[in-house]
Every structure is written in C-alpha cells, then in structure tokens.
Amino acid sequence: xxxxxxxxxxxxxxxxxxxxxxxxxxxxxxxxxxxxxxxxxxxxxxxxxxxxxxxxxxxxxxxxxxxxxxxxxxxxxxxxxxxxxxxxxxxxxxxxxxxxxxxxxxxxxxxxxxxxxxxxxxxxxxxx
Length: 128
Hints:
Blueprint: H1 3-8, H2 16-25, E1 26-31, E2 37-41, E3 47-50, H3 62-68, H4 76-79
Antiparallel strand pairs: 1-2, 2-3
C-alpha cells in the first residue's frame, strides 16, 4: 500500500496518524490470533485496536472485546479460563461476502424454491 493510501484511507488498516498516535501515546497490551494489536493510553483512560488487515469490528476476538470495553482490567489471559480443545477459532462475520449462508431459495443460488408440500393451505376469504 502506498504512502498516500496510508495517509487518506481508514477502511483498510491504520492510517499514518493512528499508527503515529499509537506509537507515541499508546502502550501495546497484547495481540490476538489474527494479528490485531491492542493498545491503551499511558494513563489507562483509552483503549483501542489496530487491525491486521481490513477494519472490521467482527474480527475482534471475544476475549479482547471485554478488555476493549473496560469490562476487565488485565489481559484476557489473566481473567479467562484456558481454551478448550472443542472451541473453534474466532472468525469474522461472513455476511455480505461469498462465504455467507444462502438458503435453497436465495437468488444467489438460482432462486428456485422447493415445491410446497401438502401441509400448507392458502387462506381464501370465500372459505370462511
């Protein structure tokens, strides 16, 4: 990414101003599995995240979400139980992407619904 894009775009990673502010006034607290870095101000009043890639709030891991909103003081490792082997890794919300769920009758899948079974009977005003 060129320097002009870094200066003027906020939707695809941190701008130069945010990176400068984080380096000057922030203290790196930790990093999650996706490479997002979490900072707090030196006085502890502000907390923020620098995304590794596109700025998408659904990419914040659930354990760091509590820390960002001030629910917990320490890093997630200090207040959460260890991860269990059946827990899936955190993933971004796929809505609006090619990975989104599309049921059988969706237009993206051809728009053909299955034929109605015999359990539905349309209402008719004359039948009442």
